Amino acid sequence: MTDGELRHMVSKTLTCRIDKRANCSEKMEEFLKRCFYHTGQYDSQEHFVALDKKLKEHEGGRLSNRLFYLSIPPNIFVDAVKCASSSASSLSGWTRVIVEKPFGRDSKTSAALTNSLKHYLEEDQIFRIDHYLGKELVENLSVLRFSNLIFEPLWSRQYIQNVQFIFSEDFGTEGRGGYFNHYGIIRDIMQNHLLQILALFAMETPVSLDAEDIRNEKVKVLRSMRPIQLEDVVIGQYKGTAKGGVTYPGYTDDTTVPKDSLTPTFAAAALFIDNSRWDGVPFLMKAGKALHTRSAEIRVQFRHVPGNLYNRNYGGTNLDQTTNELVIRVQPDEGIYLKINNKVPGLGMRLDQSHLNLLYSARYSKEIPDAYERLLLDAIEGERRLFIRSDELDAAWALFTPLLKEVEEKKMIPELYPYGSRGPVGAHYLAAKHNVQWGDL
User: Fold this and answer.
1) Glucose-6-phosphate dehydrogenase C-terminal domain: from which residue to which, for each copy (predicted)?
2) What is the pLDDT at residue 20?
3) What is the average per-residue pLDDT within 294-312?
């Protein structure tokens, strides 16, 4: 590809949507002038020397900082890092590397990858990116909790009955089955995105907002977690279904997936944190593809009011069954709402559940930046809060590796569910076992 072809490709999706002031076209032109294409092999020192030479021409002897973003297959991470480190590092400024997940398949392969990277880089040069941590509502979690007096005292086993982390996509693997089949939904979504959000949600108050202080608290949460039991896990796989005259293919109908594949496209699990704040509180995770909707949210269900005056049937609403619930919707239609029990206006005593609603699109006119924009800017500025440290990664894999090994060794058969449904029935039995009802029904 020539520089011109690259610029043309970039210009098709480039906008001034965050900075909407005047001279948009001039700014875009100025940006595109700084975009260059350079071709080479990932494992060729010679080609990286040529890249270094080209970079030096553009840097013109000024202080240079270099950020390498490895959005490439994991099996060539180390080759690329080795060559970049020895042949294309900055001599006058910093050199940093962003590594895109997956970070291995289990504890062993993850540790091997980390050790290999550390042959050529220091820990503070490695930025492991999990784009979910860059999402506005995930960023807002600690603000919501630590700067609002009404929430901070409630954030414990005394008041919270359960917490749910729900991720659903309304499409299947769509030709990416080859990649997905090697990893499955537990590795793809649960072990990283959902577990990272759980750690941020459940951590103790950090000493400061410094990256290391926050990451220290997240590691403590992960190390306090009880090993996941197989009986606390449900896996599923979507099957083909006909709906409204349209036939939707099943997972194994994808030509890139083996016909006898047991890879789960859906998983639900109950996790527990064995510390004084969260002892006995079920943290439920649910993630799946080809479900009825696309969404990601955190649901905090509070305990019932003790000795509730209104626990008998009032106008068809049994208040004993309706608990307060705080919902943080990460995507789409970002928002936060709190379900409260309320009297319906009128002469009778009829109660219902109402929402105190903060819908971001209605409250804020500013556009919400994409998660990758925030994370790339953080990497450039050396802000590590939202990136995953190696001991954090080790703790996350230590939690999930035994479970994954057991599922694979026992050849656990996933429960089939129709494309576009709410997932396998087993997920409801799992919730009921822990006296929980999924909040997204």
Assistant:
1) 143-438
2) 65
3) 82
340 close to 354: Cβ distance less than 8 angstroms: yes
Apex 384 CA angle, 221 and 376, nearest 5: 125
- H or E stretch at 27: helix 24-32
pLDDT score of 320? 45
In 121-176, where does DSSP find H-type helix?
136-139, 141-146
As a whole number of angstroms, the distance between CA 172 and CA 149 comes to 42
Checking if the pLDDT of 319 tops 50, the result is no
Could you tell me which of 389, 371, 400 has the C-alpha nearest to residue 132?
371
Q: What is the sign of the dihedral through the CA atoms of 209, 210, 211 and 215?
A: negative
Q: What is the pLDDT of residues 9-46, one digit of tens each?
A: 998 888 777 666 678 888 888 899 999 999 999 989 99
292 catalytic? Reply is no
Domains 3-130 and 133-369+390-433 share a fold: no
∠ CA 320-322-328, nearest 5°, is 150
Over residues 75-83, the mean pLDDT reads 90
Q: Is the dihedral of CA 430, 234, 277, 168 positive or negative?
A: negative
CA 254 to CA 173: how far, in whole Å? 8
Identify the residue whose tokens are 């997956």: 102
Predicted confidence (pLDDT) at residue 369 exceeds the cutoff of 70: yes
Q: What count of residues does the chain have?
A: 441
Q: Give the domain ranges of the chain.
A: 3-130, 133-369+390-433
Distance CA 69, CA 422 (A): 36
Q: Which fold has domain 3-130?
A: Rossmann fold (3.40.50)
CATH 3.30.360.10 fits 133-369+390-433, yes or no: yes
pLDDT at 192: 86
How far is Cα 266 from Cα 287, in angstroms, rounded to an integer? 6
Single out the catalytic residue among 47, 131, 182, 193: 193
- pLDDT (mean) for 102-128: 88
Helices (H), 60-202: 77-87, 107-120, 136-139, 141-146, 177-185, 195-202
Asked whether 127 and 134 are in contact (CB, 8 A), the reply is: no
Gap between the Cα atoms of 208 and 215, Å rounded:
11
pLDDT at 321: 56
Look at strands 415-418 and 233-239 and give their pairing: parallel
